[in-house]
Amino acid sequence: MELSLNLNILELILLSLSLVFILEGILYTLLPNSMRKVFIFILNSKEDKIRVIGFIFFVLGIIILYLLFL
After folding, report:
1. Is residue 59 part of a domain?
2. Nearest to 28 by CA among 19, 13, 18, 38
3. Within the chain, what is the greatest distance between any pair of CA atoms?
4. Is 6's pLDDT higher than 90?
5. Which residues, 6+ apart, have CB-to-CB distance to 12 below 8 Å?
6. Which H or E element spans position 68?
7. 3-class DSSP state of 40
8. Cα 40 to Cα 27: distance, rounded to the nearest angstrom
9. Which of 10, 41, 55, 70 gives 20 to 30 Å between its CA and that of 34?
10. What DSSP state is assigned to residue 45?
């Protein structure tokens, strides 16, 4: 499978941001109660725990990108 999107870096960044907004919008629309629980969890968590969770998501994103464009 080959994916070819002749995008410059700005277009790629804007595409990525728009996908993030779309996915977050879907979550807030379909699961508002669960999203509230996530916010409460984050507010009650220590900074170190939030950093670890953020780093895990960062690494997962890098792995997915690597696998997509391998």
Report:
1. yes
2. 38
3. 44
4. no
5. 5
6. helix 47-68
7. helix
8. 16
9. 55
10. S
Residue 12 tokens read as: 């790629």
Residue type, 38: V
Question: What is the amino acid identity at position 41?
Answer: F
Tens of pLDDT along 35-61? 999 999 999 999 999 999 999 999 998
Residues in the chain: 70
* Whether this model's pTM surpasses 0.85: no
* Residues of the domain holding 37: 9-68
| CA dist., res. 48 & res. 61, Å (int) | 20
Tokens of 28: 């807030």
Q: Is the dihedral of CA 22, 26, 32, 36 positive or negative?
A: negative
Domains: count for the chain: 1
The mean of the pLDDT values for the chain is: 89
DSSP code of residue 69: T
Instruction: Return the structure tokens found at 62.
Output: 């890098």
Residue 1 domain flag:
no
